[in-house]
What we know:
- The strands form 3 sheets. A 6-stranded mixed sheet has the order 2-1-3-4-6-5, sandwiched between helices. A 6-stranded parallel sheet has the order 11-10-7-12-13-14, sandwiched between helices. Strands 8-9 form a two-stranded antiparallel sheet.
- The protein starts with a strand and ends with a helix.
- The protein folds into 2 domains: 95 residues, no CATH class; 180 residues, Glycosyl transferase family 10, C-terminal domain (Rossmann fold, 3-Layer(aba) Sandwich), CATH 3.40.50.11660.
- 33% of the residues lie in helices and 16% in strands.
- The protein has 327 residues and is α/β, with parallel strands linked by helices.
- Helix 6 links the parallel strand 12 and strand 13.
- The chain is globular, with a radius of gyration of 21 Å.
- The protein is built from 8 helices and 14 strands.
Amino acid sequence: MKIYLATKPEGSIFTDEISLNILKNLGYTLTSVCSEAGVIIAHSYIKLLPYALRYPRKILLVWTNEPRYDTSFKNTIRLPFGFPKIRIMNVYSKDVFWNNLHFLASYHFDNANDLGININRDLPNVTRQEFEAFNKKNKIAALFTNTLGQNTKLMKGGVNIDLSKQRCQIAIEGHKRQQLDIYGNKWPAGYALDNSGFGFEKQNPWWIEKIEMLKCYKFNLCFENTAEPYYVTEKIWHAIQAYSLPIYSSLNSSIYETFPANSFIDAVQFKTTDELLDYVQSLSTEEYLERLNMCIDVFNNSLVQKRVNYEKNADVMVSKIVERILI
Length: 327
């Protein structure tokens, strides 16, 4: 059966050679001609609606690893008037993410892009003497776009799982206290030191520039933009790679399946932003290094798991997609 990609699915099995070979062995190949495909895939059900009208007998599937591309909380959308159903595989369907390591040393299933983390290179633990030689700023780095002027609210089960607004609010308070440096787009004048991230590369890919920037800071505010189990992106891993202690949020997260308590700084454990910033400011070097080295141990153990399970994960993902196609 042939598969037509209506939109470009970055970081998916459709951009990974190992996964494409597994699909091929199961009888599935990609085509650039929509009319000859049996399956049409896009990153949101909205993008599939025109295809549902034009090709009512084809199989339609949403596949995305981005939480805001498709916010359907049901695994199937049934269209009226006899049009085909749309199968949903997204961040919330529990069959796109199933562990916390998908973005460690790879862009999800695009193993050709390691996002600046060498899967075969462990990080050594840090002594006090080595840490002092790093000469890091005793500040927090925040690298993300300001979303305070946007409606980013996302309700699921009565809980707002949007984290982008909270991380922006923390960034603003930290900036006012001269405890945090902001890098990113759409901030008020005088807030951001520079732009950062995709689209603002200067000489190297954005992830290389980001890691180099983080190496200058003791802390990194690295919330995800959306709180959902197993949606753990490169953010926390980049912080550790740069020896920058992560400030993360465990809200509606599976993160403690991988990290022990008191490793990263968990913003959920503080009642207010001031409490969080006060704690960061008062953290002793001893406790800082204890937390950081715990994170490094997790990082190294997770690299081992990723090395062992990469092809297995590709097999599992392909199986899940084929299962959804056949339902």
